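Input record (one chain):
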Amino acid sequence: MRKIIKLFLCFTLSFMMINSAEAKTIDHFHGEVDSSVTVEEDVNGSVALAGSDTEMKGKANGVSFLIGNKVIFNGESEYIALAGNSIIVKGTVTNDAFIAGNIITVEKDANLQRDVVIAGADIEIHGNVGRNISIYGSNVSFVGAKIEGNVNIHATSVKADEETVISGNLSYPEDASVSISKGVVKGKTTKTDAMQSDENGFVTTMMGKFWSFLSLMLVFAVLSLVASKLFVRVQENYDKFDFNKGLETFTKGLVFMILVPIIIFVLFLMSIGIPLALILLALYFIIMYLSTIFTGYLIGYKLWQKFFNNDINMLVVGIFGIAILFILNLIPGINFIVSMLSMFIGIGIIYDTLLKKMGSNE
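The corresponding structure, as predicted from the sequence alone:
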């Protein structure tokens, strides 16, 4: 009887060990788009998740990009880029973190081991930051937080309780409402120039960009359903893409931007040409708006093509690329350059994939 029990125990233990050894690991880039997306597996690569509710619980050896109405990061990643209405961070980030949203909470269990940039309306920090943190928002609160580096804040309200420790320097606007317990800041405290009014301030600009981004995503989703061949042509036309090809595409967009307004102006001078001028003007602004979508799709496609050798998911590719442009457009100093480049290149792509095709006899 004892032998039978021993055999049963050995069999059970070995079965459990086999199950644990077979824990799923994804050995490539992983992307999902759905109303609700949760990833619990470890990913040997980067992750891109988009949906109303998105959550990352596993470990990613790369960048974890999450976007949605409610975003929860409860895993581990080298880098994170989170965008959403409500964002909760609980996990570990071994390198840098970028977070943009409306209500942002960095929980006590969160361990952000290097630099952090946060942009939002209401921001609450409970966890650890291993180096410097820059915050752009309206209301910023530190509750038991541990910041190893400097803290640079652009906000109207700043609070820090007595359990918070800022090992470096602290800076905030001179007109901000400040409530910081004594002994919290170990370095120097400096006041910067006053914040702009809320009407024209950073938060309003940030939220405007965020809603513009969501609008672009919606337009892209519709286009990918009703005119998917356009994006297939982008893949075909730009399967091989180098500096010369990029310069050619940029030049086409630049020429279009300069030449079309001249044609419209000439048509407006002739009474018979006014209806055509109005049509061209409307098309001109539509193409300018769509240019960001096509540039974003090209960026997403080339990154997918370079790093992930699997089937193309058109929706994930587009969302990933457009999101990268959105993040780049939030960085002061380069956002104007990024906007201009994406517009010119996008118009060049539209010319190659749509206008050139319409003008041919094929």
